[in-house]
Amino acid sequence: MVFKASHRGDDGFTDLGSKRVSKDSIVIEFEGEVDELVSLIGVVKAFFKEYNITDLVTILDDIQRKLMHIASYVALMGKVDSPIDAQSLSEIEKLIDDFSNKVVIYPRFVVPGASIGSALLHFVRAVCRRVERRAVRMLREGLLDQKTYVYLNRLSDLLYLLALYVNVIINVKEDLL
């Protein structure tokens, strides 16, 4: 089978639901950044699969799926309910609490790079923070609901803790500033 693109985007517009929108619209920018985050999480998930760190693989897989549902929800521009509800927020808060108890929270900056796994998670966290910054504007403009924004904000916190956790389980000391 040969892939043949339709070239409908050659004019600088793309389909979003039943509408044509500019490829530099805030919604398309958000969609692209979420796609990048999901893809990068996939790289990290594959890395942890190779080292059989299944608890992180499971968590990362769940995050990917939630992010893909968020992207779908945003693309449908309010025609469906947000996939993030009170239970989703409770679940991520519980993960944050659990991992907070498994790591040392340093009063100084952690310099990413103590291990490959940890550095990858710090990279994912940085991309997540970019998604979160875009989401602030989406929230302000009524294109994103509060719970979904809160989830993205909490997600960067969780990713930071997971980066610290990796170094705990492989017994690598953090590099601090």
TrEMBL record:
<dbReference type="Pfam" id="PF01923">
    <property type="entry name" value="Cob_adeno_trans"/>
</dbReference>
<protein>
    <submittedName>
        <fullName>Cob(I)yrinic acid a,c-diamide adenosyltransferase</fullName>
        <ecNumber>2.5.1.17</ecNumber>
    </submittedName>
</protein>
<dbReference type="InterPro" id="IPR016030">
    <property type="entry name" value="CblAdoTrfase-like"/>
</dbReference>
<keyword id="KW-0808">Transferase</keyword>
<dbReference type="GO" id="GO:0008817">
    <property type="term" value="F:corrinoid adenosyltransferase activity"/>
</dbReference>
<keyword id="KW-0067">ATP-binding</keyword>
<feature type="domain" description="Cobalamin adenosyltransferase-like">
    <location>
        <begin position="7"/>
        <end position="166"/>
    </location>
</feature>
<keyword id="KW-0547">Nucleotide-binding</keyword>
<dbReference type="GO" id="GO:0005524">
    <property type="term" value="F:ATP binding"/>
</dbReference>
<dbReference type="InterPro" id="IPR036451">
    <property type="entry name" value="CblAdoTrfase-like_sf"/>
</dbReference>
<dbReference type="InterPro" id="IPR029499">
    <property type="entry name" value="PduO-typ"/>
</dbReference>
